[in-house]
Specification:
- 37% of the residues lie in helices and 0% in strands.
- With 70 residues, it is an all-alpha fold.
Length: 70
């Protein structure tokens, strides 16, 4: 029985090109934030708009809490 992966572990795994040949840093980095395109890291663009809305809200919450790269 394998334990469930945390979201961070999934992102790390996916960012290492195991699924599609795309890296998370191709879409989200200091110069750009493309949450819809980032779906290519895992499995294409299914539900990309919906998931991007969650990501934008999460990002805004982090910024409001003082977490920012700028």
């Amino acid at each position: 029985h394998m334990p469930k992966l945390t979201q961070i572990q999934k992102v790390r795994r996916n960012s290492r090109l195991r699924f599609t040949g795309k890296k998370l840093s191709d879409y989200i980095n200091l110069g750009t934030t493309n949450f819809i395109g980032a779906r290519h890291v895992i499995n294409g663009t299914d539900h990309a708009g919906k998931i991007a809305k969650y990501a934008v809200a999460y990002d805004a919450t982090l910024e409001q809490g003082g977490y920012s790269v700028m």
